[in-house]
Amino acid sequence: MRKLELHWQILIGMLLGLVFGFAMTYPDWGREFVQDWINPFGTIFVKLLKLIAIPLILASLVKGISDLKDISKFRRIGLRTISIYVVTTVVAITIGLLLVNVLKPGDGISEETITKLTETYATDTAVTSKLEEASRQRQRPLGFLEDMVPDNAIKALSENKLMLQVIFFTIFLGISMLLIGEERAKPLKNFFDSLNFVVLKMVDLIMLTAPFAVFALLANVVVSSGDPDLLIALLRYAGVVVLGLFLLVVFYAVVVGSYTKKNPFWFLKQISPAQLLAFSTSSSAATLPVTMERVEEHIGVDKEVSSFVLPVGATINMDGTSLYQGVAAVFIAQALAFDLTLGDQLTIVLTALLASIGSAAVPGAGMVMLVIVLESIGFPADKLAIGLALIFAVDRPLDMCRTVINVTGDATVSMVVAKSVGKLGEPKVEDWDDYYEEVK
Ligand code: ASP
User: I need a surface site. Which of 45, 81, 155, 221 has the fewest CB within 10 A?
Assistant: First the structure.
């Protein structure tokens, strides 16, 4: 296995996991076997990645900022990042809306299928829990700003969900370190530099197990998926989402090729292990450590840029999710004969933009925020559960695909921002065993 490139190893693991999962749907004991004996290895892998996410953000962002030597540079990077994120998200939603309006997947869905989907899922706890979560998340206008500022640094650092709070605290710390002068900041800077190396080594070590972990994750996805007939009924809708996501990849490739002058295929190859993990875990937050490692070491984006752009992107930039929200909202409206005006569609652009910023980078989060998008266009509250039931059967596979795009979008923007400030260099790959001889 050792000589095969990492992305091939992961891909083989995924394929074997799919085949194994399918085989296990036949024997009576198969599902339980996968859930009890195989899935835990996937869960452990995801936990390991999440375990290092906060130390990595902390160490790498402090290093990134304290290497800057000039705060105005940070402002420039920050403003560019946020503006480009907004632009890519609007492009994503627009592609989604154009496709769903032209291809009209919702018109082809029969009354019978709607009834069947409603009966199967409308009262399912998985769907009702999304509605409950959405009602908890209903935003106050400046809520996201308020939530971004922690009142307890230790508490923020102890909770993966509070990534924006961690970023806020770390930027505050890094800038203050710049302001006390190099000499006085040195001990702290050395500490974070060293921590940064250690955590990146941890990523390398965890990735050694990735091919086995994705086997477990995908086998579990297959045995937990719903009725295949219902999946097929939703094929046109799923096809529109996947087509949109594919067009987004083309968009990123064009941006990378034309602006950064790097070969887009090379870019996609370098980032592919992160994409495959995004697909297998459905979580851009869990994938973040790998995305950071690939972008810095294998693409050559300087840490000054990647350490800010990527963690922020994982939390607020979700192009795949926003495209999906646009398509899903209009699909549900089409299927349930709810007329949408042009104004409604523009409202979708705006709320899907905000919703993708507000979506957590975890599996299924996009569907929670979809409720808020639907409400913004006046979709009747009593039909929300039916609306979600219509798309629930294919949500997991689509979540896997949109997470790949979320991660690819962040990586693309990090290259663009790096290029724009002259910080896109050459790759400098570190392997897990670079210093192994010394400690063997
Ligand atoms: N699973 C996605 C992510 O982590 C969010 C979503 O679309 O549900 O990026």
Answer: 155
